[in-house]
């Protein structure tokens, strides 16, 4: 089962996004594990966590498309709840601007 964690400010490629810039006051970080099972010769089953896939999403005011990292290019991202760092990762950032709402939807995908 995936873990879903809220965050209310972010730093993407050294650009700080304050809580006041979030449209819905916060974003969500979803952490999903990629697991496999191995059975050894003695009949024991071993569960192994291969990776953790991270997906963060939030919406902020204004045109923030400059935060888009480009296809396949990872940048350093830090997600925080207040002063507490929830996650620091290298991720691909996609920023899509909605002129009607004057807001940008941001999606960050990375592996740990």
What does this structure look like?
By secondary structure, the protein is mainly beta. The protein is built from no helices and eight strands. The protein has an eight-stranded antiparallel β-sheet, with no helix packed on it. A hairpin with a 4-residue loop joins strand 7 and strand 8 (103-111). The radius of gyration is 17 Å and the shape is elongated.
Task: Write out key terms for the chains shown.
8-stranded antiparallel sheet; 66% strand; 112 residues; 8 strands
Largest sheet: 8 strands, antiparallel
| C-alpha end-to-end distance | 17 Å
Q: Which strand order spans the largest sheet, edge to edge or round the barrel?
A: 1-4-5-8-7-6-2-3
- Secondary-structure element string: EEEEEEEE
Q: How would you state the average pLDDT, rounded?
A: 93
Please report the total strand number as a whole number. Answer: 8
Helix segment tally: 0
Basic shape: elongated
Percent in helix: under 10%
Measured by DSSP, the beta-strand proportion falls in: over 45%
Radius of gyration over C-alpha positions, nearest whole angstrom: 17 Å
